[in-house]
Amino acid sequence: MFLLSGMYKSDYLCPSLKKPDSILENLKALAKELLLFFGSTIFLVNFAKMMAVLIGMFLLMSWWLKCYTQHGESVQVNDFTGMYVADANKQGRSKDFRFEVIDSVWMEGKPSGIILSQEPKPLARVKEGRKIYVTVTGESAPVRLPIWSQSSYDFDRYSNKVARLGVKCRVKERVFDNRQAANTILYLFYDGKKVTEQQVKNGFDVMMGSTLEFVVTERLSNEMEIPQLRCMTFDAAEFLVSSSNLNIGEVFEDESVTDRNTAFVYQQEPAFATGQTIQMGAQISLWLTQTLPDGCTTDDLPDENDGGF
Fold it and tell me: Pairing between strand 131-137 and 98-105?
């Protein structure tokens, strides 16, 4: 408007008739007015206020982003395993760590509240204020015993299953019973009190870490140790073999034997060896001589009142 108002009407209507001197003068006048405007106190004050607002907004936005994202900053996670949660909270306070227990596991011999594992892992780089998820040791809790008929009557299998519940088992007594399989559970003792199968069926709880004592069955073995027959008289050896549920096999006499019953055993087959076993009903062959074999003494002979021979 200023430019137009400073022109002649004829110049506006006929651009081809503009005078160069008047255009130059108008530009100079415009520049002078702009310099006066930008140099005025009002402009400078308003401009300074506007810049202060922009700078303040920039600083405020940078501070907010730093607080929200912790941009460019990280801290190292401590190793909190083996510590109580309360102690870990104190140590992690300097880095504004927060702890959350996500699981607890009972462990025999360890008090509750000890950190077993953590996430993030030790030495990981994270932002301050990070939440640390931990698994800790728990307190002993009651557990329900599995029902024998649904689990197993066999002590070994049942004890393995109960061990996974944190309960220990041991055999208190073995009772002879040929009608049931060996190692069959008859009943148990908990805290010195007898617990029957019916009580377990009804629901029986024990504390983790406790020990159960079982009474189980046993059967006669089909094998037994080979008896030592050398140096015995045939009569004594025959009695021992018979009482051991074994049988006399072939009997070989040397030329000196005059009375089989009083003759001595100087060799047997199978031979005696400590811990060596033989099937019940098996046969033992004997070699006899009338005189006491070499290496044998009268101490090896059975007493007259021992066993009736």
Answer: parallel
CA dihedral (56, 62, 68, 74) in degrees, to 10, reads -140
Q: Distance (Å, rounded) from C-alpha 43 to C-alpha 195?
A: 98
289 has which bridge partners?
A: 264
Residue whose entry in the numeric block shows the structure tokens 């530009």: 27
CA distance 81 to 134: 9
**Tens digits of per-residue pLDDT, 199-249?**
999 999 999 889 999 999 987 767 788 999 999 999 999 999 988 889 999
* Count of other CB atoms within 10 angstroms of residue 241: 21
Name the nearest CA neighbour of 106 among 165, 163, 168.
Answer: 165
Going by the DSSP 8-state scheme, the letter that residue 126 receives in this structure is E
Phi, psi torsion values for 172, nearest 5 degrees: -85, -40
Burial class (CB within 10 angstroms; exposed 0-12, middle 13-18, buried 19+) of 238: buried
pTM, entire model: 0.42
Contacts of 42 (CB under 8 A, 6+ apart): none
pLDDT digits over 247-268, tens only?
999 999 999 999 999 999 999 9
